[in-house]
Amino acid sequence: MNAVVPSQVELRIPRSCEFVRIARKTARALAHQLDFIITDAADIELAIGEACTNAVEHVGGNCPEIVVRFSSDAEQLVMEVIDQGQGFDPGRVPDPEVADEDSIGGLGLLVIRALMDELDITCNPDVGGTCVRMVKYRTKQ
Amino acid sequence: MLTLTGEVDVSNTPQVREAGLKLLADGAKKLVVDLSATDYMDSAGLGTLVGLLKRLKEAGGAMAIAGPQPRVNRLFQITGLNQIFAIYEDVGTAVKEVGA
């Protein structure tokens, strides 16, 4: 019997480094189930890991958990990493074309931008909360 | 030699940093980091390696990366850190080149 792949999956994980691995392993498993090629599945795992790490490490405020949402259709996998922390101004995040030893802090978003087909960051520093939305298109095998 | 096996991510980079700093504290000036058995690394892992490199350079030392798997090697390329680290295909070459 073929496994039924859900079109939507939602995880709620504690905002802690130890739980980032759960999010990325879920992402990788889902990508495999959705028949993404191996390298794309690895990219999806890494991007989710980086987005969750940013939420854990760099988002201040009282935010006990992170929500990770996956939704898929025939063309793409959409991933959202949502926290209710203080939020930040994405315009102030360093976006080095080439990282150096002094710009290490911007590496997570640099990696996501390189691996994903779309990246949108929505945040409101006034009321808090950030949503990092990433899209990976399906590549025909 | 610092050998990292399995997955290096935000959850265990403190241990990696601690192990590297211990080698430096013990007097190592030339360090080879063996990544041949590292299946996964994220930017937190890269940041830890950058920190060790900076400390070594400040002490007049040198560091080399050995044997990264394609997936990890790609991360060095994406971030441009392949321009900062000396990366070699295997441990033997890295040891020879860096003089560790």
Write the SSE topology.
The complex is a heterodimer of chains A (141) and B (100).
Chain A lengths: L7 E7 L2 H17 L4 H20 L7 E8 L3 E8 L23 H9 L2 E6 L6 E8 L4
Antiparallel strand pairs in A: 1-2, 2-3, 3-5, 4-5
Helix pairs in contact in A: 1-2, 2-3
Chain B lengths: L1 E2 L2 E3 L4 H13 L4 E5 L3 E4 L1 H16 L3 E5 L3 H10 L6 E3 L2 H8 L2
Parallel strand pairs in B: 1-3, 2-4, 3-5, 5-6
Helix pairs in contact in B: 1-2
Summarize the structure.
Chain A is an alpha+beta fold and 141 residues long.
Integer-rounded radius of gyration of chain A = 15 Å
What distance lies between the first and last C-alpha atoms of chain A, to the nearest angstrom? 22 Å
Approximate helicity band of chain B: 40-55%
Query: Can you write the helix and strand succession of chain B as a string?
Result: EEHEEHEHEH
Low-confidence stretches of chain A: 95-103
In CATH, the topology of chain A is named Heat Shock Protein 90
Strand order of the largest sheet of chain B: 1-3-5-6
**What's the level 1 CATH class of chain A?**
Alpha Beta
Which structural class matches the secondary elements of chain B? alpha/beta
Task: Give the fraction of residues assigned to helices of chain A.
Answer: 25-40%
Give the largest interface.
A-B, 26 and 21 residues
How are the strands of the biggest sheet of chain A laid out side by side?
1-2-3-5-4
Question: What portion of the residues of chain A fall into strands of 2 or more residues?
Answer: 25-35%
Count of structural domains of chain A: 1
CATH class designation of chain B:
Alpha Beta
Within the CATH hierarchy, at the fold level, what is the topology of chain B?
Answer: Transcription Regulator spoIIAA
Question: Radius of gyration of chain B in whole Å, from Cα?
Answer: 12 Å
Task: Please describe what this structure looks like.
The complex is a heterodimer of chains A (141) and B (100). Chain A is of the alpha+beta class. Chain A has one domain: Histidine kinase-like ATPase, C-terminal domain (Heat Shock Protein 90, 2-Layer Sandwich), CATH 3.30.565. Chain A has helices at residues 17-33, 38-57, 107-115, and strands at residues 8-14, 65-72, 76-83, 118-123, 130-137. Chain A has a five-stranded antiparallel beta sheet, with helices on one face. In chain A, helix 1 (17-33) packs antiparallel against helix 2 (38-57) and helix 2 (38-57) packs antiparallel against helix 3 (107-115). In chain B, helix 1 packs parallel to helix 2. Chain B has helices at 13-25, 43-58, 70-79, 91-98; strands at residues 2-3, 6-8, 30-34, 38-41, 62-66, 86-88. Helix content of chain B is 47%, strand content 22%. Chain B contains four helices and six strands; from the N terminus they run E-E-H-E-E-H-E-H-E-H. With 100 residues, chain B is of the alpha/beta class. In chain B, helix 3 (70-79) links the parallel strand 5 and strand 6 (86-88). At the A-B interface, helix 1, helix 2 and helix 3 of A face helix 2 and helix 3 of B.
